[in-house]
Amino acid sequence: MGNDRLRLPGGFLWGTATSAHQVEGDNHNNDWWAFEQQPGAIWHGDRSGAACGWWREAERDFDLMRELGQNTHRLSVEWSRIEPEQDAFDPEAIARYRQMLGGLRERGIEPMVTLHHFTTPLWMARQGGWTNPLIVERFAKYARYVAEELGDLVQLWCTINEPAVYAAEAYLLGIHAPGHRSPREALAVLKNMLRGHVAAYRAVHAAQLYAEVGLVKNVRLFDPANPQAPGDRLAAWLMDRAFNEWTLHALKTGRLPFSVKRDDALAHSLDFIGLNYYTRDMVAFDSRQKLLTRRFPAPGAEVSDAGREGAYGEVYPEGLYRALKKVNRYGVPIYVTEFGLPDADDDQRPRFLLTHLAQVHRAIGEGVPVRGVYHWSLTDNFEWCDGWALRFGLAALDPRTGERRLRRSGELYAAICRENGVTPDMLEREGLS
Ligand code: FCB
């Protein structure tokens, strides 16, 4: 990587990301809580339970963020707390969020708030959740209320986290709540989420003219296992279309997947884009498989800890650069709203941080307007269908005692935040110079 110092632009945002259900605890009024109670739904029978205890005392982790030199944090607000029954908003929930957001600000930490991060209130889930087109206006109503109540404390808003991941895992693969397996429903969900994004984008702006509102897109890269094999090339291309391009293309052109009608509002619904990047897959055509493809890490590549479904993914830093180039087509600022890896013993994460940030630096050097990065996550938290088995934290967390222990990578990230970049020393210590 050479001996140069990788300095990021002045005012760069350095933080971590979380989501309500994964950290707050006792979110029993949403579809995920119900899903967790089903036998076999979560690896090892884990539950979110008290999670990281944020509903009562997020502040101790806010202190940790400040100690670690972070100047931003991405969190989500929980729809089922704010609107526990349809059209009935809970002022106490809003008061707690005001306290949390104020607490971040007092510590010099700029909040970025996501309105929907995988969980849906039970009352809406009972009416079909995101398969029901009526959700679009209901989500917008909630978004407007939240922006009116919290807008003085929040400038940066994300409408929806990872629509394609949500549609695929919850409605195609059946491994996220509500656990359906229906291509037809998955496509309907993706479209309703894109419509929901536009409606929420407008709702937030109606309440707060100068808000900055974006969508969070997980970009996963798909490369043909054998670039010479037309079947592999086609399979990789199709995966990229369905997972990445249906969403990105819709936001660029205003055309929903399989639709010829252009919606101007959809094409102008991004003040920024949030990029979540984790990994890439090698893709091979395989007629014995259900989706006619097999996906796996590149042979011999470094992989992170495995989840219930096998390898979580290849450690592929250049993919972050490629993903940034892919989302740089809108001409809007970009935040890396999540990057991280499951690594319980923290023997990969320090290098991972340096190699991935080098790719962010590279993209910025080529003019890509990256404004900040959010590591997933601050502490270990409830990792959806993988329960507590996958550990993404800069700090280890024991969910039984609530004890936090900073990992070596946590110290390194703190040094990076303070230096506003990566120094030759850091590279040398990790054997990267
Ligand atoms: C992302 C999710 C986030 C977390 C990470 C590991 O897809 O947005 O909630 O689970 O993966």
In short:
By secondary structure, the chain is an alpha/beta fold.
List keywords for this structure.
8-stranded parallel β-barrel, 39% helix, binds beta-D-fucopyranose, TIM Barrel, alpha/beta, 433 residues, two-stranded antiparallel sheet
Describe this structure in words.
The structure is a single chain. The chain has one domain: Glycosidases (TIM Barrel, Alpha-Beta Barrel). The mean pLDDT is about 95. It is built from 16 helices and 15 strands. The longest helix has 25 residues. A hairpin with a 7-residue loop joins strand 7 and strand 8. The protein is α/β, with parallel strands linked by helices and about 425 residues long. It has an 8-stranded parallel beta barrel, surrounded by 6 helices. Strands 1-15 form a two-stranded antiparallel sheet. The radius of gyration is 20 Å and the shape is globular. Helix 8 packs parallel to helix 10, helix 9 runs antiparallel to helix 10 and helix 13 runs parallel beside helix 14. The N and C termini lie close together (about 5 Å). The structure holds beta-D-fucopyranose (FCB). The site of beta-D-fucopyranose (FCB) has 12 residues, from loops.
Could you give the topology of this structure?
Layout: E1 6-7, E2 13-17, H1 20-23, H2 31-36, H3 54-57, H4 59-67, E3 72-76, H5 79-82, H6 91-106, E4 110-116, H7 122-125, H8 135-150, E5 156-161, H9 163-171, H10 183-207, E6 212-224, H11 230-253, H12 264-267, E7 272-285, E8 293-296, E9 306-307, E10 310-311, H13 318-327, E11 334-339, H14 349-365, E12 370-375, E13 395-398, E14 403-406, H15 408-419, E15 421-422, H16 424-429
Parallel strand pairs: 2-3, 2-12, 3-4, 4-5, 5-6, 6-7, 7-11, 11-12
Antiparallel strand pairs: 1-15, 7-8, 9-10, 13-14
Helix pairs in contact: 8-10, 9-10, 9-11, 13-14
The structure holds beta-D-fucopyranose.
Beta-D-fucopyranose binds near residues 22, 162, 165, 276 and 338.
